[in-house]
Amino acid sequence: MSNQSKPYHYLIVGAGLFGSVVAWRAIQAGKRVKVIDRRNHVGGNLYCENRDGVAVHIYGPHIFHTSNKMVWEWVNSIVPFEPFINSPLANYKGKLYNLPFNMNTFHQLWGVTTAEQAQAIIASQRGDIKEPQNLEQQAISLVGTDIYNTLVKGYTEKQWGRDCRDLPADIIRRLPVRFTYDNNYFNDTYQGIPQGGYNTFIDRLLEGADVELNCDFFADREYWESVAEKIVYTGEIDRYFDYCYGHLEYRTLKFEHEQLDTTDYQGVAVMNFTDRETPYTRIVSHRHFDPSCTAPHTVITREYPAEWQPGAEPYYPIGDSRNSALAEKYRELAADSNTIFGGRLADYRYYDMHHIVEKALELEL
Ligand code: FAD
Question: Quick check: is 181 in a domain?
Fold first, then answer.
């Protein structure tokens, strides 16, 4: 088929946030757009499932936050966002601590009431580690032993499935510490959740696109490559190149959802379990994200990090030297290709939603 006779200007592989923002832009520019996704829904990991009136963030809780005014105004032009301040708690063996580490946390840990007292304790526990060799040393050099042992160690070891002494120091370049009584988890200027939820937001972005679900690009690659003048690919980058350099690795998650006959379970949206023994890292109580919810029950989710095997859902890229070097080689192939690559899987990078929006809005189409 010549370019002129192709039915679509763009084929977008993946109806996640990146693919949906690019689809919106192409539609605004008057282009014909086909979007395919291998899942049975749009929205990628932002997708929320309606469970008897409760919107459940089935791929993990999502709170939009940014300090980029342009990005905030743009997302609000699609759907107005409701303010939401994320203030998770840490539960360590039944005792609760505020997050992020701030004066409330320090008071709970040590009974101190002034910044000076807290700073003195942290300084006395930092030790003299000049060049941290592993994550444990890095964390202690940043926040001291008490915070590390109570709030960092167990959670991180569950998250990555390894002892903190076997994890590279650069997984945590900084651990934000605040010397004010401020439980707002994110430092960003803007924070919220779309009115009507993420599904409404994504549906608006995809208005005018021809969307096909349960449709894997690789099930008929030759056909899909023939339907559009340009392909935007948001799936795993190694798969696109037929794993020619080997598999990139990930950390995966298992989500256990439970419906409960109460309208509130834990009084907060997110509670982290920072001891090593509790097998999950956090419990999410979804009603907190949606003040308009009138269902007589709630749904909670326990989140279990797990070893990734090919075929499992890829959540977090692994930042070790093997995977970083491999990803770089795949990115070089992508740079020489006619296909446009974007999003967390095609870049093999962890991105928050505001990074994705920013990149998709800046993309040269
Ligand atoms: P995805 O959402 O993964 O979309 C890619 C899509 O491509 C998927 O739908 C997939 O099915 C499809 N696809 C892949 N391969 C193919 C193929 N071969 N054929 C057809 N379709 C294909 N960010 C925040 O800003 N705030 C938060 O609070 C937050 N919480 C998070 C919690 C968790 C547990 C996780 C893992 C991430 C969180 N994020 C958060 C990050 C956020 O999820 C990402 O920034 C965002 O989802 C990335 O969008 P994407 O389009 O790149 O990827």
Answer: no
